[in-house]
Amino acid sequence: GCPRTSNPESQVSPAPAVEARFIQKEFDEFRDLTTITHRKTLKCGGALGRGGVHNTYAFQLRMVKVPAGASLLLDCDICAEDWFHARSGRITFNCDQQNVSAEYEESRSDVQTIGNTAYCYEYGYYRLSDEVLERIAACQVLKIRITGGSGYEEPNAKWCQEFQTYCRQFYNNAIDASRFADSLGGGGGGGSSGSTSAREIGYELGQA
């Protein structure tokens, strides 16, 4: 798996109020811009082998609000031993056999050598909508395919369920508090008896 590189932008902040325990908000008064991010980065792949994929993908949901409107983004940093060329591909969510896709918008890329291995890092995001996020969160069976110029990977069913919980948490806290309130998992107080795995997702992967 790929080693972790330090990213000062993804530091975990102090515990929030209960009603927004999965998100954090930042306001830039000079640009009249509000940024809402999920408190955790959800990893797929890596040293723990989570998701059953070869590369390492680090996902984080982010909403940017300005007076003219809002953008919903799924940040995705990719680490691989060879270029995945995500900018030539997309992520596809199969929600109960209905496909919805988003193209990868690359921000930058670089190569970092750790030991004797050179790792290729691609940084960017997929642009979503509230409607797409709701479909992902509400469907009965979610399957995901991550496609790049050099091929594609499909996280396993267990990871797709974790990603679905992650989306429900963000949708409930950032968009509509009346939705998915009974299926948020744990990770900040409350939660059902099945909240252990959600806590692992939040805390273990947030730190991984």
Q: How would you portray this structure in words?
A:
- The protein is globular.
- The longest helix is centred in the last third of the chain and has 19 residues.
- By secondary structure, the protein is an alpha+beta fold.
- Strands 1, 2, 3, 4, 5, 6, 7, 8, 9 and 10 form a 10-stranded antiparallel sheet that branches.
- Helices cover 20% and strands 40% of the residues.
- The C terminus is likely disordered.
- A hairpin with a 2-residue loop joins strand 9 and strand 10.
- It has 3 helices and 10 strands.
- The N and C termini lie close together (12 Å).
- Helix 1 crosses helix 2.
The chain-level mean pLDDT equals: 85
Overall strand count: 10
Structural class by sheet pairing and helices: alpha+beta
Show unreliable segments: 8-19, 188-208
Order of helices and strands: EEEEEEEEHEEHH
Q: Count of helical segments?
A: 3
Q: CA-to-CA gap between the ends?
A: 12 Å
* Oligomeric state of the chains present here: single chain
Strand count, sense and barrel status of the largest sheet are: 10 strands, antiparallel
The coarse silhouette is globular
CA radius of gyration is 17 Å
Strand content: 35-45%
Bin the helical content: 10-25%
